[in-house]
């Protein structure tokens, strides 16, 4: 019980405070890189996933939300709406890491697939409300157009549009995030250990 409670607690120290802007910067650069090169990926969740792995679901969620707000204010206003999806990605990443989905490559791939499904479930309703079911990614929207032309249900078309980009994106992002995490010194990782003295955000 104590272990589960510590999952939703944050140790408010210099390391935790520094993690959020670092994760936001990683997300911001990744998204700009993907959009500039028109990649079939978003690359805007590497920092969020990394923060979830290292700092837990709360820090992961905060990193994702703040990233979307900043990107929405500076580059693409629509990005702020998807802060909800980024919160879900951060929470899912923290939970999966907490329950042992780390270390082995096959676990990292499953980790990425699960995060992709969580992200898609949250994003598809937003895509439908704001963009008629499309994602804005040229590769995913090509799949949407094809399915729509063949009279496939718009919600299913939207989900396939989203997951066709989200799955490879979150798998790649998870692998990169775990690669960075794996080279961190243990002394740094222990700064985020919530099993001892913690401060809640309640």
UniProtKB/TrEMBL annotation:
The regions listed as transmembrane in this protein's record are 12-29, 49-73, 80-99, 105-130
Is Transmembrane helix tagged as a keyword? yes
Keywords per UniProt:
Membrane, Transmembrane, Transmembrane helix
Domain of life, per UniProt, equals: Bacteria
The protein's matches in Gene3D superfamilies, at most eight in alphabetical order, are given as: 1.10.1760.20
- Which protein, by its recorded name, is this? ECF transporter S component
Species lineage, top-down?
Answer: Bacteria, Bacillati, Bacillota, Bacilli, Bacillales
